Amino acid sequence: MRARLVVFPIKGRKWCFSRSVDPFAAQTPSGVTPTTVRGLWKKLSSESKPINANAELLVDFISDKMNKAWTGLEKAPEGSMKNKIHGLGLKLLARVKPSEIFLKSISKEVTSIQVSYPPSLDPRLVRRRLRHIAMSGTILHKKYLIGSVTLLPLTSAFMVLPLPNIPFFWVLFRTYSHWRALQGSEQLLKLLPNQTDDADERNNNKKKPQSPTCVLLPSEELCKLLGEASEEGLSEETIVEICKLFHLNKIDVLKYRNLV
């Protein structure tokens, strides 16, 4: 599967890294992840798979349950306890860094990437920036994953209270999120050309064929929209136009501009 990535400066030296949303992805059920604990156990015990594959299946099962629970909170009546918990969850999610969201979007099913960027940028710099965010992700999210896993037993102690164990479910979500971001970082590194490719291209002073797993495509439409940028960064109207053109998530893109 090929993923379309969009890279562009959004405010000063800050760049935005985002993946185009596939409008048909949510409409195509995978049918792989079991929906019940019994089905999960049967799948884990009946098929001889590596430990990593079984761990993936378990994480997907937990993720599916969390998504369904979140949908239930979202549909809760106004003013109810579930509605208040949903509002708190939205505030916590707003603190998640956009780079983490971007890395989570690079799933193991992605076998190649197509990168759209303004032609005013050097393609070698675009590749280096992508490699940097991927390499940083492998270090940071591995560290945060270990920290989140360590906190899970501690927060589970709050289960004895008659209130919803928000700390436990938040740490559980962060564990899952760091797991996916770490996987996305490693997958993105596999798809990007090696640093030696940039050095060879610069030394030979000629354009080499692009890697089959990473195709860089300059976008004139994106360049025209970026021409309206000011010192304070792209305006929200410009960001909305870019998101419409490339099918990006506006909330995630705005996070890049508002980063301190």
UniProtKB/TrEMBL annotation:
InterPro entries to which the protein is assigned, alphabetical: Mit_KHE1
GO BP terms, alphabetized: potassium ion transport; proton transmembrane transport
Residue ranges of the TM segments: 151-173
Pfam families for the chain: Mit_KHE1
Keyword hit for Transmembrane: yes
Any one Gene Ontology cellular component term annotated for this protein: mitochondrial inner membrane
Assigned keywords, A-Z: Membrane, Transmembrane, Transmembrane helix
Name of the protein this chain belongs to: (rape) hypothetical protein
Protein species of origin: Brassica napus (Rape)
